[in-house]
Write a structure and sequence with these properties.
The protein has helices spanning 8-28, 194-216, and strands spanning 33-42, 45-47, 53-55, 59-68, 74-85, 88-89, 97-99, 108-110, 116-121, 127-128, 135-137, 146-150, 161-165, 174-177, 186-192. The chain is an alpha+beta fold. The chain folds into 2 domains: 8-29 and 194-216; 33-192, no CATH class.
């Protein structure tokens, strides 16, 4: 039996169904989402202040604010919320420099560890690599320190590299993996996904509004 479209039920359908379809459209139109990602990497080796090889075991960990791409794995890094190296907390500010191994590219990581590429100078980039080039480097053991994890062969040694340091450990100290990143030492996971939460609130609001209309009718 057909119902009168001007009846309360018809009125609710005219409002509620388009609203639900609009909410669904929002979800399908958002292939990327803002996320907070927690990561950690354990270095397998280090370099002492006198330049001699040292033991590994130093852990770089932190939280980044980024954008999760449609593949569900790649995160483009917007900023570092926090980071530490064996208990030393890096200090971030508006001056903090974040880049990829290839100068001018976006810093990225993957949750799986298949590809990692970020270079961070908490005090800002204040040195050139190579000499005379743009300010795209910083002394790892001076100022605010710095850290680099990349699968890009930026030093022409045939593989990526991991480096981290801070003045508290000495100007010449580096936690380092010069023979490429050890992917089994990497872990990362999403700790917050703001966008779906906002959509859930939108859906709840639409449901509540539709229910109130039905009661009034």
């Amino acid at each position: 039996m057909n119902k009168n479209p001007s009846s309360p039920g018809g009125s609710i359908r005219r409002f509620f169904l388009p609203a639900l379809l609009s909410a669904a459209g929002l979800m399908t139109a958002m292939p990327a989402s803002a996320v907070l990602v927690e990561f950690s990497y354990e270095f397998s080796a280090s370099r002492n202040n006198d330049g001699t090889p040292g033991p590994g075991g130093q852990v770089l960990s932190g939280v980044v604010d980024g954008t999760l791409l449609a593949d569900g794995d790649t995160v483009v890094i917007n900023e570092f919320v926090s980071a530490s190296l064996d208990g030393f907390d890096y200090a971030f500010s508006a001056a903090t420099g974040i880049r990829a191994g290839v100068f001018g590219s976006a810093a990225t990581l993957t949750l799986s560890g298949d590809f990692i590429d970020f270079w961070v100078c908490p005090g800002g980039f204040n040195a050139s690599l190579p000499a005379g080039g743009p300010l795209n480097d910083c002394p790892f053991g001076q100022g605010g320190g710095g850290f680099l994890l990349t699968d890009i062969d930026i030093f022409g040694i045939g593989n990526g590299v991991g480096l981290a340091g801070a003045p508290v450990f000495g100007a010449g100290f580096r936690a380092r993996d010069r023979d490429g990143l050890i992917k089994s030492n990497w872990s990362a996971g999403i700790v917050s996904v703001p966008a779906p939460g906002a959509l859930a609130l939108l859906g709840a609001g639409l449901f509540g509004f539709g229910f109130s209309r039905r009661r009034r009718a």
